[in-house]
Amino acid sequence: MGRRKGTEAVARLALVLAGLGLTACASTSGTPAALDDPLENVNRPVFTFNDGLDRQILEPVARGWEAITPHSVVVHIDQFFENLQTPGYFVNDLLQGDVRQSGVEMFRFLLNSTVGLAGLFDPASHYLGLESRDEDFGQTLGVWGVPPGPYLMLPVAGSYAARDLAAAPVDLALNAWTLVPGVGLVYTINRRSLRIEEFREARGAALDLYVFLRDSYQQSREAAVMNSDSPEEAPSDDFYELDEDP
Questions:
Q1: How far apart are CA 216 and CA 32, in angstroms?
Q2: Please, how many CA atoms are within 13 Å of residue 76, restricted to the half-sphere of its CB?
Q3: Per-residue confidence (pLDDT) for residue 231, from 0 to 100
Q4: Around Cβ 180, how many Cβ atoms within 10 Å?
Q5: 76 falls within a domain
Q6: pTM: predicted TM-score of the whole model, two decimal places
Q7: Is 153 exposed, middle or buried (0-12, 13-18, 19+ CB in 10 A)?
Q8: How far apart are CA 21 and CA 149, in angstroms?
Q9: Nearest-angstrom CA–CA distance, 104 and 124
Q10: Looking at the domain assignment, is residue 246 inside a domain?
Q11: In this structure, is residue 201 part of a structural domain?
């Protein structure tokens, strides 16, 4: 499935998912200085709105999808979408001067798109140990030295630093498949179903969910710019095999 988040930058454009911190790290150790949040009084009501959308609509739909779909099918669908994002990773790696990782991404895309049946399977990771590294233009701007700017919570679109919001049009252009009607929604529901327990635990543990997700977003983005975040453990899948039981 690759390291994340999204999408994840473009996934944040699709629905509430990233607004609720899907791409956020759960750890709060070593917390850096708080992200500038001069619009907190505006951001909090927007967050409440987004959280309500997730609780009332997205989460129930994701639970229904999880209930009727074998887990490995959900994983393979997520890998398919991850593969679609790989050309964007390749471009951003080049813009960041990381020629080696851009070569890894290109090889992953070619291998997974062919042997991996359009990315439904990930032989590049499972058999060659070639891991993807999610990259978006917001990270590229960070590598170039652009500061994150103030934190923004947008209706439906979710969490952004000003730098990432400015980069969003480029990310959208690199992932034009999200503009196909219904595709972004399928991606979001499928990925949300993989994070049901993570969301439940975050809601149960956080004293202030807004602050938790804001700070986690900051940590996640800073780690992504530095390429210091640990790869997400991908759900196991047997090559060319699907679960028979939901």
A1: 10
A2: 19
A3: 43
A4: 9
A5: yes
A6: 0.81
A7: buried
A8: 18
A9: 9
A10: no
A11: yes
